[in-house]
User: Which sequence fits this backbone?
């Protein structure tokens, strides 16, 4: 996967792969020799979004990596 789209849906960020690179999207950059990838999405997030660790999960039905916008420490507090 070399490109993805990012959408804010409710209180989550959804990352979805783009099946054809010519279709546009965000470029995933290779970060290290293991092949880990990263993408800059700051400009898509609501202003009040604080940095922090997130507990993402893969939603097979939606075909998306779903990432809560609240850091894990805040999400557990409800």
Assistant:
């Amino acid at each position: 996967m070399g490109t993805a789209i990012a959408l804010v849906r409710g209180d989550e960020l959804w990352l979805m792969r783009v099946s054809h690179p010519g279709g546009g999207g965000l470029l995933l950059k290779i970060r290290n020799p293991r092949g880990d990838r990263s993408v800059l999405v700051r400009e898509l997030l609501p202003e009040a979004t604080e940095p922090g660790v997130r507990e993402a999960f893969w939603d097979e039905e939606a075909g998306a990596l779903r990432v809560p916008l609240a850091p894990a420490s805040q999400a557990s507090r409800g």
Notes: Strands lie at 3-9, 12-17, 26-27, 29-30, 37-38, 57-59, 64-68. The chain has a mean pLDDT of 85.
